[in-house]
Amino acid sequence: MPDPLLANSAALQTVVSDGTICRLLGDWNVQQLSVRGEVSARRKALVQVKSIAQWDLSGLKTLDAVGAQLLWQAWAQCIPPATVLTPSQQALFEVLAQHPIEAAPAPRATQWLGWIRAIGQGCYVAVGHGRELLLLLGGLVLNLGMLLARPSRGPWREISAQIFRAGAQALGITALVGFLIGVVLSYLSAQQLAVFGAGQFIVKLLGVATVRELGPVLAAILVAGRSGSSITAQIGVMRVTQELDAMQVMGISHGQRLILPRVIALAVAMPLLVLWTDAAALLGGMLAANLQLGLSMVWFFERLPDAIGLTNYWISVIKGVTFGAWIGLAACHFGLQIEPNTESLGRGTTASVVTSITGVILIDALYAILFNEMKL
Amino acid sequence: MTSAAKPLIDVQDLTTAFGSHVVHEQLNLKIFSKEILALVGGSGSGKTTLLRQILGLDRPRSGVVKVFDRPVHDYVGPERIALTHRWGMLFQAGALFSALPVFDNIALPLREVHHLPEDLIRDVVLMRLSWMGLTPRDAALMPSELSGGMIKRVALARALALDPELLFLDEPTAGLDPQRSDEFVELIRVLHRELGFTVVMVTHDLDTIGALATRVAVLAEKKVLVEGSLEQVMQTQHPFIEAFFHGERGARALGGQEAKGVNHGKS
What we know:
The structure holds 2 protein chains of 2 kinds. Chain A is mainly alpha-helical. Chain A is 72% helix and 5% strand. In chain A, the strands form 2 sheets. A 4-stranded mixed β-sheet of chain A has the order 1-2-4-6, covered by helices on one side. The longest helix of chain A has 41 residues, at 297-337. Chain A is elongated, with a radius of gyration of 35 Å. The termini of chain A are far apart. In chain B, the strands form 2 sheets. In chain B, strands 6-7-8-3-9-10 form a 6-stranded mixed β-sheet. In chain B, helix 3 (102-112) packs across helix 4, helix 3 packs parallel to helix 5 and helix 6 runs parallel beside helix 7. Chain A binds chain B through residues 29-31, 33-40, 64-66, 69-70, 72-73, 88, 91-92, 95-96, 99-102, 104, 240, 339-344, and chain B through 82, 85, 97-99, 110, 113-117, 119-120, 122-124, 126-128, 130-131, 136, 142-144, 162-163, 194-196.
């Protein structure tokens, strides 16, 4: 007669006890045990019949490693005496007996002051990255010197391929974003200027803001997201597939073949992209001003050279070169730091983009102070 | 293996092609319960591609691959998930999840079936590891810290996590030194005896074939050229079989059987 306590349990059909013999029936495999609540129900049933004298497993339909482990746990890691087993079940439990499992280690005590430690660790990591970046920059300068000394041995093909990828292929997206930002900026400032009847000043406002600040930063953010991430991922995968090691074994310097071409390419492509973004933004601003304030496009165009001035253009170009070199350097650095696993690859790519964009803003702020001091 | 027995896997008139490159043409193959079938063939003869077809990773151009009596692409949704619980695959390079430590790699399939308590999963995983000759200390390692032999063992433990009826092995001993390779072959043999699964393995290694295979199928000329026991296969007259089994390596690896094959060739 089944135990009344088990009457509602799903384990009723699988653990049947008549007081002296406990018969296990049905399927004891992972498919059956993975039904919700099944394991705890069977465990409860097994505990209740624990004092039973004899076990009979000959009626089992299936018994796999998970089911056997469940019984093994209930039996406290040994086969109870006078248990009826088929030969294959016997073999399975013998394997379990041969491979005893250590008890689970006690969970480590929570460290209450762990956050202080984390802050310190964070600083340590940041300083480490800074040091590595500095070393990379030093190596880059040396490699650049070698390139200038023997230009014929330079990785020109790689440089041109990178310029095409980071520069030419980014023309569409930078133009679109620049154009739209120009429209938005012009539209918003035109409304305010019209209040004061100072609509003509939009040329100066738009020209300086775009060329000096927005163009370089916008282009840099787009390039960091587009090319920076791809460079990091590319170098990271080369670590995973041991291509970096292969290069080292062949005596090919990472600095010369990987870092130098990418940094040079970005330093060349970025100022060009910046000017391109400036132009697109000014075009957008010109159209919006024409629609909103009724300013003639020809007039707007004629006023541009005076409004912006050559100085601002050169500032734009200098910023472009710096941002490009910085993005390339940061992307290569984080690519080389990646460990051979997918998690590290994802983390490295994120860190690369975040660091390059933050760095771009930081450099931009430094330039603002510098040019201000220089009265430019 | 009688022809009346129902095959677990039935490949019927399979044609696989990538663009204009035809890999299999009207290929037929039956795999029966509890056997260890070795798929043998030269590089590029489509052994791994055939495995991918059976697993439903690629789609055939024509023909059908039946697994457990149904075309493999007919399993969808919950049925496909149930099917994946019935097979395990050991990939050539292990295909361990590089972001997870060894323990979680093996525990993943068990966690994916849901509702198994974590302490039971822990015991099953550690038992499996111990069975594969790895220690609980190895369980905390990341895949990138493992040696080639350990990767194979962990990958095998993962493939066997759910006690599958069907085990696919892609080059199980490639990249292992002879001793590790022998140990691994022995491990598979013991597991096969204890757990009674069916094995389909792709291999180049004659030692592995000699030690494990109950049946050999030779892939050449875009189809199964010949199948049968190792002796039967070796008696077939074909340039590839001559080169593969009767070459110097073959003589070294298969010893006794080689002698029989040569005698037959002469008679």
